[in-house]
Structure formats: C-alpha cells, structure tokens
Design goal:
The complex is a heterodimer of chains A (513) and B (85). Chain A has 513 residues and is an alpha/beta fold. Helices cover 30% and strands 28% of the residues of chain A. Chain A starts with a helix and ends with a helix. The longest helix of chain B has 16 residues. The chains are: A alpha/beta (513), B mainly alpha (85).
Chain lengths: 513, 85
Amino acid sequence: MSRTLYGLLSASAARTPHATAVEDPVRDCHLSYSDLEHAAGKLSDALQGAGVTAGDRVGIYAPKSTSSVAAIFATLKLGAAYVPVDYTAPPERNAYIFNDCSVRAVVVQRSLSEALVAALDNPGTQVHETGLDEDRANLGVDVVIVSTSLESDSAIDDLAYILYTSGSTGKPKGVMHTNSSALGFVDWCSEAFAPTGSDKFSAHASFHFDLSILDLYVPIKHGAAIVLIGEDVGKQPAVLAPLIAETGITMWYSTPSILRLLVETGKLAEHDYSKLRIVNFAGEVFPIKHLRAVKEIWRHPRYFNLYGPTETNVCTAFEIPAEIEVDQTSPFPIGYACSGDETMVVDHDDAPVPDGSPGELLVSGDSVMQGYWNLPDRNDAAFYLKDGKRWYRTGDVVIDADNGCYEFVGRRDRMVKRRGYRIELGEIESALYRHSDISEAAVVATPDETNGVKITAFVSTKNGERIGLIAMKRYCSQNLPLYMIPDRFNYPEALPKTSTDKVDYQKLATEAQ
Amino acid sequence: MPDKSTIRTAVKEFILEKFLPGEDPDSLTDDTPLISGGILDSISTVTLVAFLEDRFGVQFQAHEMSADYLDSPETIANTVEEKLG
C-alpha cells in the first residue's frame, strides 16, 4: 500500500501513543498521539456523515489549534484533500476558494459558520455537529462542519491538500500536492535535520502557508511534538520570545521577518534558548545584517536557508556557516537541490545556461506539485516537459555559483527595464538594506511614460525618522549604478505584510501609483 | 546680467522643485554633488540644461552636460557665469 500523510500519524500513534503530538500553549491544550488519532477518527466519522468520501475536498476555516490539526488528519484519513484558508480573510474570499475547488464540506469555527454559509451562497449547505469527544481531547477551538452540494468533474488521485496562493490575475489559484509530493519533502527533512521523538517543532506559519507542511508532518513522522503558535501570538515578539523558551522548542521555522522582529523587540537575551538546535527560515531573502543579529543572540543552533515556491515545497537548501564573515554583505545562497529533486537553469528559450550565468530555475522531482486546481492553461505554462519529466518553472532567476550551489538573483517578474537598462529590483533592496539606519526596504516599479518605469522605494528606518532625499540619493549613487537609483522614497513606519508575513508588494505598488 | 548668487539661488530653487520635492531647502548646499550624488540622472540633466538655457539665455554643448560643468549649484553657477561672459 502506498504511503500517506495519515499513515505517519497511525505509525507514530502505534509506537508512542502517550507522547505529546500537539500542544497549544496559549490555549493550554495538549493532545497525545493517541488523543490526536482518536480526535481525527471522530471527526472523520462526522465528515463521512456529512457526505465526504475519498477524493473530495474539505475546507479548514479556523484558527490554528488542536481542532484544526485534528480536522486536517480527519480529512486525510478519509483519503480526501484539505483546503486550509486564512480565517482572518473576508468570508467572500474564502467562499471563492471553497467554490473554486468544490469542497464537499468545511470544518469551520462555529463563530464563523454563519458568515461562511451566507458567503458560499450554495442552496445545499447544512451545518453538522462534529461529535468530538471533549472529555478525552480538549480541542481548543469550537468547530462545526458545513457541508455543501458543490460538484466537480476534476478528480486527482492521491491529492492531499490544496494551498491557495495569490494569483497575478487577482484570483487566488490552488496549488495541488499529493501525499507523494508532500512525503518527498518530509523524507528530505528527515535526512537534513535528523529529528527524534524528543524534538519540539514550532508551528508558526498559518496552515494555508506552505511552511506548515514541515511544521505538521515532520514531527508527526518522528513522534515529536508540534507546538502551535496562534496567529495572534505569532507576530507579538513580547509574547512569542518567552513562549519559545518556555515550551522548549528545538526546531524553529519561520520567515526572516519574524526572526528580525524577535531580535529587535523580543528581548531574547532575557530567556534561555539552550534547547533550540535548528533554525530554519524561508519565504523571502534574509538581509545579512538581520541574520547576523539573530546569530549573535542564538549562537548555538544550526541555521538553514530553505528555498522553494509553494509549487515545489522546499527544493533547495543551504546551511549557514557557523561564523558569518565581517565583510559579508550579500545574502547567502539558496543552496543545493534537495535529494529527490532535480534542478536546471535555463534561458528564455529553455536552453541550459553555462554555470555562473543567470537563468530561470526549473525543478523536477518528488516534491513538485501535481498542478493548479482546474487551470489547465496555467498548468501548461507552469511546466516544461523534457526527457519525460515535468519541470516546474519557478519564475526565479538564479546563478549556479559553485557546483550546484545556487544564488538567488531575483524574481523573473521583478526584472524591469528602465531607459533600456535591465534592473533587478531586489538588487536595489539589497543596497538599501546595507544602509546602517534602514531596517526594512522594498522597491516597486510602476509604469511611467518617460522612463518606462518609475521606481519607488519604501523604507522604514531604525529611529522612525526619514532620511533626507539628498542623503538617500547620494548613498544610492555610491552603491548602485545611476539608472538604478529610485525616483522616490517613502517612509512608512513598517512595511505592509501579507497574511504569510511576506512584504505585500501588491499593496506597495498600489500606493506607488 | 545676473550675478553668481542669483544664478545659484535660481538653480537651487529649480532643483528643489523639480527633483527634490519635499526636501529641506537647507540640505541643498552650494557644493551638494548633483550628478555624482545621484540627484540628477541623464534625463534630469537635460531638463536642468533646458531651464538654464531658457532662463539665462545661454547655450550648452553636448560635452558640457557632464559632472565637470554641472555637478553642484556652485559649479553650475560658474559655468553659466562664464558663458554670460
């Protein structure tokens, strides 16, 4: 029988039934492996009663909690795929997602269910109780099941989950992963991090964010514990910093933005982080000065830069050296292809580029997605077929700098032309980050009749004060070619972030118009 | 004929309005580097020269549109003054 994500839970529950599987320190909820298996079983019975069968999709619309973890495993147990959404997003957006992939049911926080039913606008909706056995499993968040009569012709074998990411058309698009593609990544994590049953993994990312795949399934595979960090706590360094220490988290995983916040305002020096053994970061470039600041406080853990779009899971990784050279200013590489994945770098005509030349990174292998839900045209464009393999086009420009060690250059769609010069906006950001007074920087390009594009920099400073335009332009002229100097500088207190803690470039582009 | 101080003031006012909106006027000094300091790029240098030609009735050659002739309010005033003879 083929392996499944649910199989990881069954195996660990059989091996170590009494070990802690999930803890939610803020709500003071703990589930042992036996408890989690029991809760998932109860909830899967309720889902089945609501009409869910193998091959269906089930929405997860609740805060991160032991309840939502149980709902995920309940869905997987039935051979259905879960579709987690941002519970803080407008119900209409979430209803769009659920309609798009024709969910059979949604496990939803009771207080959100009424708004969901209204937004779904489906005459077949019914609300069902979960029947969860509260005396055995304290499940933190009260959930119900909303079933629908949505139908779909699409059927994907082995589908495990669909993560919706924002699409360039403005409509979210569903990235489909199978049990097999998720397990390909999970197995690589086993090799890379050698987890044991004594580990405690942070679950900082929301479940609709791809970082959650490591957070959920690697600990479950190894009989380790998941420490849930609620969405409300995750961005409050004053609460988060002591929580990491007190829960004894051994494996941390988040975006660089959160690590920067922790260092700048979390008073980390006041707590004991001796149990922390690995710090993983992904999702965006980690400016070297902020990474150095984290490593100066958390000195002993190993650090890994994990790279990969939602479509591929993590597909390359780089272990940060123990000491960062004093004169290093450029970010670390995204590293080498993970075992199970193959990579190649190609030019605009899909021809491989020589080592050391920039080109688009293509990925093929175990961890790559099945495709986008119900978007055949996009799937055709997303993959390049060669040698009988499907190569996912990441849209990221990289350089093979050293025998398969990739350096990230930038997003292909963040390359702009200004007065005939090709400009990578990320290069401007890197230069701004090197300024000693700047804590955050993002650069956007908007259409401009004279120059092709107008470049606007958004900069937040350490002391909250704006840097004069003359001083800023002079600084840029010493660090960038003249054609790359931004036309305008804006000074927000902090850069706007998406629900997955990345810089919200769409919002910045709107502001720059 | 305008004196050097008048030329400097006019140049500074033009640069502040056109290329440094919102900047503190005191930050733009006589020796602030304009081209080498990233304030004037090739397009804005052309705009500045058009202003100088129009305002002071002088003519610039192509090779004069460079930092040697236009890199600070002081250099610009010297260049214009020389042209006015």
